[in-house]
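Subject: complex prediction, re-run

Hi both,

The earlier run crashed halfway through, so I resubmitted it with identical inputs.
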Amino acid sequence: MIYCFSPVTEGELTVAGMNVSTHSRDIKRMVGVAPQEDNLDPDFTVIKNLQVYARYFDIPKAEAAKRAIELLKFFQLEEKQTKAIDELSTGMKRRLIIARALINQPQILLLDEPTTGLDPQGRHMVWDEIRSLLKQEVTIILTTHYMDEAAALCDRVFIVDNGKVIETGVPQKLIKEHVGEDVLEVPFNEVILNALKKELPEADIEIFGDQIRVFVNRHGVFERIIKKFPGVNMTIRNANLEDVFLKLTGRKLRE
Amino acid sequence: MTENVNPSPSVSRLPKLTYRVWAVWRRNFDVFMKKWHVNFLPSLIEPILYLLAFGFGLGTFVTQIEGVSYIQWIAPGLVAITVMYGGFFECTYASFVRMYYQRTFDAIIATPINVEEVIAGELLWGATRATFNSAIVLAVVAVFGLISTPWFLLMLPVAFFGGLLFAALGMCFTALAPNIDFFNYPTFLLITPMFLISNTFIPLASFPSPLQIIAVAALPLTHVTDLSRVLIVGKIETLGGLSPEWLLFLAVFWIAIVTVLLFALSIYLMKRKLIK
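This time it finished cleanly. Structure:
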């Protein structure tokens, strides 16, 4: 809807003050879209993909060539410029899609699950590049299923469940608000569960499959507990955005 | 805001086309030119094979039709068939691949180009493909010494508009196709029968009259063949009481009207398919 492809079904949607129903071209000119699926043009080489895409924006040829090279350099794809799309790895394709989305120097960049399906190296490369982009004057809207990605990259997150925004805020604040500071993870055991409930009446205790998770909003609570249960495998970790997400949306599997 | 808010990209709205259709056309042209020698090959070889097999082979049995040799009579038919194949197949199989497998349309629609312009660009490209291919076939026909009038050059614009008609016809099927195998239906139920009965290899007058009426009333290839024959050989036979002049007038009119209708219809159907 933001990039004027799906019609608005209800209400009114404006992007940078422009209504998507009436100003689709003006909006699309200032938005860059990096879809999740690979829709690079397999009929062209890497650099030609950028140049042909620039033509869709009426960018003059010389300017397009200049921007294409700059973007390939930025995304470390310069050596691949004459390669066919088929010859690129998934990570390279993803970076090229993001490069393509920047060819019109957009004010808003939409990244739809930019690292889904990438190996850790590819993922971190994309993260680094997104971080460098954040220093430039571009607003990035990123959708992701990875909560660590949202926490690592976003200034502000919206948690969406069944098409509705159920929470919004700064990642660290949301974590503090909803799950606190530390999490204790213990393999499930009825005896230990009851003992934990007695020891920490103020804590939030949940059962995740074969694991007990205890959430508290202070540091240094769990050290005492661990000493009390020698021989039980217990792990203390920091609370994270995934805990927030699971808490807010429940554990039911969703599509 | 006092601005009038339309229900956004509604399917029924008239197509909004700008010069941007050429960016879509240009994309396909660039791809075509990358492998032009392979792309021109069928248009070069096919007419030679047909002229040899039908013209010289069958031509020894069929000596003359309407005062011209059989090979001379079928040459314009080959050009017309090339127009049909060029437009139709570019906007069925090739467009479907770009739309469905390559997601090229989705990528373009995220830029200032809208859906209508993507489809219009595809149609104009289909027409161009038909024109390129017919130019090659015309050259082959010329080498065989089968062109009798200088008017044959007008066959290029005829190929473009005829090609646009077949491109739009193909695009309608692309909009309806649930998968690529679906194109077997229009290919074998529409294109192949047209290939055979539209006055191409067999004079239409030799078919039973109901078939003649269908060929003139409903089959675009009949009209393209008539124009091709008059522009290449210099004459066409009367048919069903219609004089050659009337047949030509009918052909131009028929092609013009049906092209406009199919152009609009194919864009409408594709928008309905693509906008979700």
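Chain B has one domain: 21-184+195-274.

- K.
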